Amino acid sequence: MPEAVGEPAIAPFGDAALLVTFGDRADPRVTAQAGAVARLLEERRSLLPALGRAVPAHATVLVPFDPLNLDARAAADLVRDAVRAMTGTSAPDAAGDAIEIPVHYGGPDGPDLEEVAERHGMSPADVVELHAGARYRVLFLGFAPGFAYLGGLPDAIATPRRPSPRERVPAGSVGIAGEQTGVYPLSMPGGWNLIGRTDAVLFDPQRAEPALLRPGAPVRFVPAR
Amino acid sequence: MILDVVDGGLLTTIQDAGRPDWTHLGVPAGGPADPWSLAVANLLAGNDAADAALELTVVGPRLVAREGGVIGIGGADLGARLVGGRRLEAGRSHRIAAGEELAFDGVDDSRRGRPLRGARAYVALVGGVDVPGVLGSRSTCLAGGFGGLDGRPLRAGDQVRSGPSDARRPATDELVWPMEDDAIDEGTRAAPVRLRALPGPAAGLDSITGATWRVAAAADRVGVRLEGHDLGSDIGGEALTHGLPWGAVQVPPDGHPIILGPDHQTTGGYRVPAVVISADLPLVGQLRPGDEVRLVATDRDTAVRALRDQRDRLAAGAAALLEAAGWDRLAASAGG
Fold first, then answer.
1. Residue B178 burial by Cβ neighbours in a 10 Å radius (0-12, 13-18, 19+)
2. A61 CB near a chain B CB, below 8 Å?
3. Domain spanning A9-86: CATH 3.30.1360.40
4. Model-level pTM?
């Protein structure tokens, strides 16, 4: 477990949700704390049906609730309780084998690889080596079904979002935007720099576990050729 | 009942209560843009309030009844009619015979020159719409390409079937929703449409409530963009990505607010200075491009009271329908 990061701020977010804020920047310890609180709230939900599914992010947890069956103050008490219960417990074991994602880097699968390399004054092979050499962790999911925000991108290849988004990014595209890397689970519009593509299915609503990448999981990218 | 789709219309999806339990995996909660009107349509068809029904957008589909039955229509008046025949008013149930063609052309010839109000109508079939459940819901998830009919809007050649066949109540074609209980119908008539809002995590609610806004062309199930003013980069801007509730009013750096709809992304990285209260979300679902909107600051107690009042009105309307249809007596005898 991350060491305690302190009492979160709990504030109403509209009439049917709370926003629980653990900090004001993306710190891996804070993100782990947010994820752990979201998981604990989920475990308690069977006893508290007025609580909705908690959505963790970098430094926050969104906690929806049914305002006709639970007062905002009572909801905040439940959250405070969960945060206290977290103290002293250990983080879910996110070590262990990394989920490996095979990637076809460059070429038509990664149309922006050369531009990213040029920007950082390195060769495309260097970018691939850095990207595939790092170990990542799933911070949280959002943006699209099965889309995982990954922490751990080497600073040397952090690259700003493209000035104008593409209308269609193929499913499985692996991209870089700022200090993030990620995989588009579906064909959709997007502004990330595309450096490769995977055949792995990131999201399948028919699977018992619909999302391949789940919060806390370690991840590696492996060159597929 | 079986309906052959001759024309899919602008955007016709299938919606039930949606998937609020899968938002942690980035799956939009989905569900009806106007939950009140979905409930009205369903109750008129003898269904539960959140059973799967068709959600029509501005210009609805053309549907030919291969097999007849009773439908309930709720929400906006999209000029519903039988081709070559009678008008099909919203807020009523209608018996459709085999071979008849339903049209929702988005215009009303009988009121030439008078614009129609509202953006979305709901068509409920007795017994619901029979499509497989995915992640606990029959709702079409456009972002994920699953749910509903193959995860996409209806198109020509599709078939819409009622079901599951164990309709809870016998079909009656004489039902009329007590319109004095329809808060949403009344709210949609207002110009500008008034949406009550609470403060969000970012500052700037006062700046948003100070202006009359116009609904931009970019108004869909993901969000409704407002224009006519520019809040600038004092109010608009980026934020550390966080979870978002339906009704959150995001302001990107360009200074134009977006009221998030049921298909909004589960997390977002723009500032949120305001949140529309739950009781007024049905009104957001009825906004169409060009409509004038004002956001009005309110407090949480008022918001919860309004939601409770809305639920009570729905229950009262449902009870009136039961009485009118004699369903309560039937149910009692069936259960006895």
1. middle
2. yes
3. yes
4. 0.93
